[in-house]
Amino acid sequence: MPARDAEPFPRAVLDVLETAGGRPVFEHGSRVVSGAELLDLVSRIAAGLRKNGLGPGDGVALVLGVDPEAFATILAAHAVGARVLGVRPGLPDDQVRHLLGLDITAVITDSDAAAARATAATGARVLTVDSLRKSRAEGRPRCAGRLADVARLIHTSGSTGAPKACAQTYAAMTDAWAARPDAWPPAIRELASRLDRFLVFGSLSSQVMFEYAVLTITAGGAAVVADRPGFPEAITRHRASASVFTVPRLAKLVAAQRRAPADLSTLRALMVSGSPLTAARHREALDVLGPVVFHGYGQTETGMIAMATPADPPGTVGVPPAAVRVEVRAPDGAPVPPGVDGELFVRTPAQAGAYWADPERSAEVFTGGWVRTRDLGHVDAGGHLHLTGRTRDVVIVNANLHYAGPIERVLAEHPDVAEAYVVAVPDEDTGEAVHAFVVPSGGRTPDLAALRALVTHRLGAACAPVAVTAIEEPPLAPSGKPDKRLLSRSRT
């Protein structure tokens, strides 16, 4: 843990940029930006923010693309001690208005169109990156964040309901390990050694994308912007050594490599996260892509909880590092022994402390210093963490609750099923029943009777699907995770 008398976040990141000096740290098309150049950009934007009266405690919304200026603006907003809210590009107008209504003092954009949209959506001041960067650099940027203040609001994916704004303090961000090699857990240390050229795409407002970019630069690599993030083309075009993938994107890459292998010789790490990766999918990815798959587990509320390296058992998310505490609890709150499923409660160095302006839901999740993940899982005898489902992802048959996760895992064991997604459907006799959506394996259409027999044998008749729908791929939420609510609606 860093000394509390030192400057808070982003001091460690700025020190990394200062040490990098003339080394390339960001690449955008033909443009290569060194550590010194990026640090100067941070200094000038921070000076511009201060000149506009922004400082500790002010709410700053960032409506930015993916480039060195966006990365520098995020760091500059934190340097002045603001409460930073990233607004992901492409959101509907009503969601943008909602986000910009969260006590925002100023909106920072990088385009005239974004500025006009922000002006229409809020009464806050609108500043442009171009105007801020023209300020005179303030030398070594000072970091004015107050440890107890909220440093950023990060929105959950909304995969289990309405997105919530996780409030992370400057103390928590200062305790994060991405820019502190002395604090890297073993799995992160191994990953860091492979981050020569990390592909950045989508939005730097993404918690995962931003923190892996920080980790990459700290490890001596460069963040490389992929304006056209199609895979595997982006990997080969940018000679990328690493990228972040969701499970559905990984499945597409594996299928593409089986059909027509691309030259992925530069690839050394795929950080797969967002949803559990079945053991079968995990093994297949390792077989096809080689020892490059890192399977991460974390939440917006917690940051990283655990990460499996290519050497860890497929289907697990690795061994939680020493700085992270994980308790597996029964419904009555009592800890359960190794190998027994329960709900996961965790503590991490950089976890959020609450949901912004939402005390009721905060009390449900942030309890006694622990974060209630609402995920189900267990720790095996070797200390590896296994994810088995979600506490609210259930089917209630004859008033008995059955978790979707175990049903999906059994269905995915059938040789004709590559992926399985279970939703609850109304049933006149039992109240609810199981409807399974499956991605066929090898073009073979799974047989309903065979799947029912498999699930009945393993989990009982109540868990057997009453219907199976074959799909090419699951619909995705904006986060990139499979969206079961859209699957449910597709039945009607």
From TrEMBL:
Mode of membrane association: Peripheral membrane protein
Keyword list, A-Z: Ligase, Membrane
EC identifiers of the protein: 6.2.1.3
Subcellular location: Membrane
Region listing for Disordered, in residue ranges: 473-492
Keyword check for Nucleotide-binding: no
Protein name (database record): Long-chain-fatty-acid--CoA ligase
Annotated AMP-dependent synthetase/ligase domain residues: 21-356
InterPro entries: AMP-bd_C, AMP-bd_C_sf, AMP-binding_CS, AMP-dep_synth/lig_dom, ANL_N_sf, ATP-dep_AMP-bd_enzyme
Pfam family for this entry, one: AMP-binding_C
Matching PANTHER family: LONG-CHAIN-FATTY-ACID--COA LIGASE
Gene Ontology CC annotations of this record: membrane
Entry keyword annotation includes Cytoplasm: no
Organism: Saccharothrix texasensis
Domain AMP-binding enzyme C-terminal: 407-481
PROSITE patterns reported for this sequence: AMP_BINDING (PS00455)
Catalytic EC class: ligase
Domain of life: Bacteria
